[in-house]
Amino acid sequence: MNKFETICDTYKHKQFVTKYMNIVIEKLISKSFFHDNSKIEDPELSVFTEFTPKLANSTYGSEEYNGFLKEMNVALIHHYANNRHHPEHFPNGIKDMDLIDLIEMLCDWKASTLRHKDGNILLSIDKNQERFGYSSELSQVFKNTIKLFE
Questions:
Q1: Per-residue confidence at 117, pLDDT binned at 50, 70, 90?
Q2: Which of 60, 37, 63, 54 is CA-nearest to residue 121?
């Protein structure tokens, strides 16, 4: 291969990378537009109307918080069934998710911490590692990614 062929091959490679990155970008834009639309209709709307303020005044992962989740069961079952950015959507949790789902999930977690008086995304990542059973490596990737939001 000569230099010209190498340059041509590199540009061809770059075009493929751009093509695939644009697929990811388009999926993320679509996900952002439709995120949590199921919450704006019943059976979720009435339950989230009641419990969102209660959740905001509780600590994520606390007994109180988990008690609220149990009371929200009907709405959460519907929500998880209709939103694949939740590990509960899948039979094998996070193991069945793709990167697009994980990105939406992480953004959702970060945004959710802003609703809580004592919200902390780093603590949420740690608690969710225990809750959902993902690896320390994935936990660190989440923590590395969160730095983009600062």
A1: confident
A2: 60
